[in-house]
Amino acid sequence: MALADGGAATSEQRLQPPSLFLMLAEARCLFELNSSLLLSPLLLRAPKGDGHPVLALPGFLASDLSMAPMRRYLKELGYDTYAWHMGRNFGGVASKRGALRDLLRRIHESTGRKVSLVGWSLGGVYARDLALQMPDMVRSVITLGSPFANDIRATNATRLYEVLSGETVDDNLEIRQAIAGDLPVPATSIYSRTDGIVNWHTSLLRPSETAENIEVHFASHIGLGVNPAALWAVADRLAQAEGEFKHFDRSGPFAIAYGPPENAQS
Question: How far is residue 250's CA from residue 95's CA, in Å, rounded to a whole number?
Fold first, then answer.
């Protein structure tokens, strides 16, 4: 089982970034987007939302445009969706903490409701950090291909992240360890073993009564936020009543696309 301890990996635990083959295969993200468009009538049969606010946080080097399909989908289902409005995400977990806290506080105060956080890749790391800092304002956290556990250097974007953000992944060890640990709110990590950017072991949280991992077969990293099976899982998780949590039921229309629950712990 992969341990989400957030500490420095030993030589035995050292993970490698995904292979060049998997990285080149990320081009299939276009197929995932087209599949979602074709399957939109089926996707709209997902459980309806209760109108609570959902903040979508983009991944490294991405902007709000990358999350637009998901926000549009969730809005159609009845959620009050929000973009982060901070331009392109050039990284910086520590440097963006203040601005993200202010954003979450504004949404919470304007709606009077707890906010669900959906973060893609690095956006999911931000989401987990926000939930630790302001749990009273967060309803749930859903991450997609986010590297927050184990040896988080095991990505094909680590060096570029450090150059552009001005932070190294080894900075702020206390923050990093907290993000890798258990959250005070319900948490779901959606990941793919065929992720070409992030080693999937870094996306595994410790399963519990309020935390789970959901594997999406053959999904790419770049396409995970528009993959139809991933979108269905996000909608299903958000539809849970506030204060309640049941583990994901893989018997829905995309059942064949999900790994069994025990896969998340192997």
Answer: 38
* Distance between CA atoms of residues 101 and 105, nearest Å: 6
Question: How many Cβ atoms from other residues are within 10 Å of residue 234's Cβ?
Answer: 26
Give the Cβ contact number of residue 189 at 10 Å: 26
The pLDDT value given to residue 101:
98
38 neighbors 32 (Cβ within 8 angstroms): no
Query: How many C-beta atoms lie closer than 10 Å to residue 263's C-beta?
Result: 15
CA trace torsion 148, 149, 150, 154 (10° rounding): -30
Task: Tokens 């992969």: give the residue.
Answer: 2
Give the distance, in angstroms, between the CA of residue 229 and the centroid of all CA atoms in the same chain. Answer: 14
Cβ atoms < 10 Å from Cβ of 53: 21
Q: Is the pLDDT of residue 170 over 90?
A: no
pTM value surpassing 0.90? yes
204, with CB counted inside 10 A (0-12, 13-18, 19+), is buried
Q: Domains of the chain, with CATH numbers?
A: 20-265 (3.40.50.1820)
